Amino acid sequence: MSFGGPEVCHTKQERLTMSESLQSAIKEICEVVGNDRTQMMEIVEQVQDRFGCVSSEAMDLIAQQMNCHRVEVMSVVSFYSFLSEKPKGTVVIRLCNDVIDLMKGANHAADAFRDELGIEFGETTPDGKITLEWTPCIGMSDQAPAALINDEVVTYLGSDGARNIARQLKEGTAPSKLVGRLGDGNNANDLVKSMVHNNIRNAGPVVFAEGIVKGDGLKKALAMSPREVINDVKNSRLRGRGGAGFPTGMKWDFTRQADGDKKYIFCNADEGEPGTFKDRVILTEKPDLMFEGMTIGGYAIGADEGILYLRGEYAYLRAFLDDVLANRRDAGLLGKNICGKGFDFDIRIVMGAGAYICGEETALLSSAEGMRGDPKNRPPFPAQKGYRDCPTAVNNVETFCKVTRILEKGPGWFSEIGSEGSAGTKLLSISGDCHKPGVYEVPFGIKLREVMDLCGAEDVQAVQIGGPSGRLVGKDSMDDQICYDHLATGGSLMVFSRKRNLLKKVLNFMEFFEEESCGYCTPCRVGNVLLRKKIEAIVNGEGEPADLEYLQTLGETVKTCSRCGLGQTSPNPVLTSLESFRDVYEAALKPALKDGSQPEFDIRAALRPAEAIAGRASSHFAE
Amino acid sequence: MSENVTLTIDGKDITGEKGQTIMDAALANDIYIPHLCHHPDLAPYGSCRVCTCLVNGRPQTACTFPISDGMEVENDTDTVNEMRKQIVEMLFVEGNHYCMFCEKSGNCELQALAYRFGVTTPRYPYQFPKREVDASHPNVWIDRDRCVLCARCIRASKDVDGKHAFDFAGRGPNRHISVDAADGIEHTPVDADDKAVQVCPVGSLMLKRQGYKIPIGQRKYDHEPIGTDIETGASKKQ
Amino acid sequence: MAEKPKVATTSMAGCFGCHMSILDIDERILKLIDLVDFDKSPIDDIKEFTGRCAVGLLEGGCCNDENVKTLKDFREHCDILIAVGDCATMGGIPALRNNMSVKECLDEAYSTDNRKGPAVHNPDNIIPNDPELPLLLDKVYPVQHVVKIDYFLPGCPAPADTIWQSLVALLTDEPVELPYELIKYD
To answer: What are the pLDDT digits (tens) for B49-70?
Structure first.
């Protein structure tokens, strides 16, 4: 699938036919999914794909066809950044503006795009062909700057590269033809054909080990009872690799024991935490390990259906992953009577459409149910009442890979790797100011200093551990261990050298959270805007000493009162930098103004429009 | 027969029924937990966060969290009320709340919460957002300036009126109420006597020609803070 | 007898209703005169500060450059600044223009093109632009957005009792604690 736009611009006559074709297309799209309301994401993504938008008319038609309310379709379409009511260009360029991409020069690429296309970000060329947008982290921080051109990924995007791409697109070159030299491993696979590189810098013994035989872990699992499988996972001391670190065996036990005949297993491949890309590499190189883990999980909890929720940014991997699933069916590892053991289980893929919040497990379930990605109230937890109100286990891509290996090699083998409280290995996505950005599989318990040595980071000022929702730490933490009890991380490590302005990084993170908050609850919806504005003022030299107390109090309230993990962690960039780098803030603050003025009030900016209209300068406040 | 559950709220022992939320148990025991999105006739929603309490030391919303034996709830304390006050102040700066001419003034739950918490003015800067007004319907109008995104109208229209005339569109700071028609509320099946129209806590979804009916001095919150009726047990006697 | 503390007042982007409310303290104004002297204020028509003031009462928000000048002047001359009324504390009715541009706002008021201006006979579509006229700000700012404010008395207008009790508390070194009935936004 693609998140591009319509193939051609339409004349009036064509538009009439289009209206009919829209109607028949929507009918067809809805019928393919059996007019199933919970497949709304698939439907609106297809419509977006074929018509360049989900227009007002399209929403009415979908509602008619699906026998639901128009406003329900509207609520979905308006939630996801890859969907739009207004038409977009045939080609949509989404340039990544996360911290790392900006550090690596995304602004130069941005200028080249602006200049060559003659439009600003958020605009479409007058011929309706090309739309230019910013997008948050697309999981390519190890090869930044990067952009999505429809579904195609372009990496290491400099000024010249951007200009070249813009020229070719203007000449009508298809986005797929823009891909330069193909990347390594399966990136060169016919079904992927991307220029993405894996950048596996450190292959550990669990996920990236050599010689793993497809099906070995699953066969061993199916020779055991589901309870025994769960016990093995418990005994391995495996904890979730997505960030929260909940014991996997316990989660599965809860799900297994929950009332309900129908149960589901979900794989969370909505890898949206800025600076994280290790799941991308697993999806590319070790999808069998992941799907096998899901199958084992399905067996353990008593599910016959698994769903891989794949972020829209990774749409370029969809065909490849579908093929991996087909091959597993052919090999008897999925489908009816798996391995001849009488176990039925299959996996399908649901696509996200550009919403960080959908990495939160209950928001992911809402999205997979065909709704806005609003998180759900807890309790009940997904293990009791998840997808379609059935008991559901949601685990991370990496967690499933580990399950497969645990079943294959035994829980003892796994639990001996790593540290006392954190068994096994962890995949780290390292980016920023280091010589070797990429994926590192390291045993838990490794010290931050060792990791910095591995990736060739010099002159380190700070490391953002676990992405924006994690912690910003400095030199004092170099001897701390990467593990659940000290430096916990879902995988993202962003390195900032001494030449970086840390407050600008904090600002970028807060802009990200403001954009990605679902807006359901007050503190997250409003508080993140207020935090961002204050950080912005401080960066602009309008900060004063009292602001630190303001940030601390506001940040704590947002953290305490927000409804889901997003708002409960979104103030972390502010709060952890206040803790580790208070001196940086203090250096940026100015003493309170002696005349009692508010530093953020800008009289010049406030007068500009009236001065322009009146054609005279203010007599009270001269330039 | 329902199973009894005992818990404490601010140290006071209370008894509730298994399956009840903290909010319902508190209301049944004449304990007021400040709230805004919660409405007794609607499914719990948990969006405003005003009813946040510390439950065994952890923050939880009373309107969504089920009670359990031995649970200790911290409700009316300085720490908790200070956080609630901040949330109420956030709502004031987020929208455009012109109380001085709002038809709901004096009967508005948001305003009443601010009065109860003694807010003279929010500590945060006003955002002055641009919001749309929809007065196309003959009897009902939406002023999104005043909306606090509590979803009461959405829930009431869907679950009580059976119309699903409203839902949220947009996300983050751009989240807003949308109606089930491309061109305004007049094209939805909304009626003046819909539950959805009665439950708005603020002056966002209003009946036309009903403004300022009750003189100042006789309105709901002119003399007594919101929650007084619950604390005195008066709400149950009605 | 020790010199009495001084009070100054001003009305910026407001309707003078809050000044009416000050006068609405009725006979207590005589007690007030015992407690304080009025400095710069429309009440006594003193145009410029004559000295340092203990308290400045601010009515109205900031809608133009002259308001900003006045506000800064008050901050400079007053120990304590009190925002009186909803226009001062949140912009009030004038802030209804905050969602339109200055140009749209002026057109709405003065232009007869496209029947924008509702009640002005202005066939030449002249937007007043005498050098004496203050220039509008891009929006109406609550006073605390412009200078630091010490106390806020909401209301439209702020009730006379609210103003009286707060003033007396401040002038007698008591904490300003308003009872439930005196914090009102309408």
So the answer is: 999 999 999 999 999 999 999 9
Count of beta carbons in the 10 Å neighbourhood of residue A529: 22
Residues in B whose CB is inside 8 Å of some CB of A read 44-50, 52, 59, 61, 64-66, 83, 86-87, 90-91, 93-94, 123-125, 127, 148-149, 164-175, 178-182
The full DSSP string for A187-205 is GGSTTT-------EEE--S
Query: Topology of B86-207 in CATH?
Result: Alpha-Beta Plaits (3.30.70)
* Chain B: closest CA distance from residue C171 (Å): 20
CA angle A16, A22, A27 (to 5 degrees): 140
C93 touches B: beta carbon within 8 Å: yes
Helices (H), C111-178: 160-171
A543-597: per-residue pLDDT in tens?
999 999 999 999 999 999 999 999 999 999 999 999 999 999 999 999 999 999 9
Q: Is C99 exposed, middle or buried (0-12, 13-18, 19+ CB in 10 A)?
A: middle
- Tokens for C107, please give them: 């057109």
E strands, A277-339, are 305-310, 335-338
Which chains form contacts with chain B, at 3 or more CB pairs under 8 Å? A, C
Residue C113 falls within a domain, yes or no? Answer: no
- This complex has an ipTM of 0.97
Give the tokens for residue B208: 């036309």
Q: Which of A607, A613, A614 sits opposite C137 (nearest CB)?
A: A607
CATH class of domain segment(s) A425-500:
alpha beta
Between CA C117 and CA C76 the distance in angstroms is: 39
CATH architecture of B4-76: Roll (3.10)
Range of the domain at C175: 6-94+138-182
3-state secondary structure at position B82:
helix
* Architecture of the domain defined by A212-415: 3-Layer(aba) Sandwich (3.40)
Contacts of A164 (CB under 8 A, 6+ apart): none
> pTM to 2 decimals?
0.96
Find which of A44, A79, A513, A520 to mutate to test the B interface (most B CBs within 10 Å of its CB): A520
Contacts of B127 in chain C (CB under 8 A): none
Sort A247 into a burial class: Cβ within 10 Å, 0-12 / 13-18 / 19+.
middle
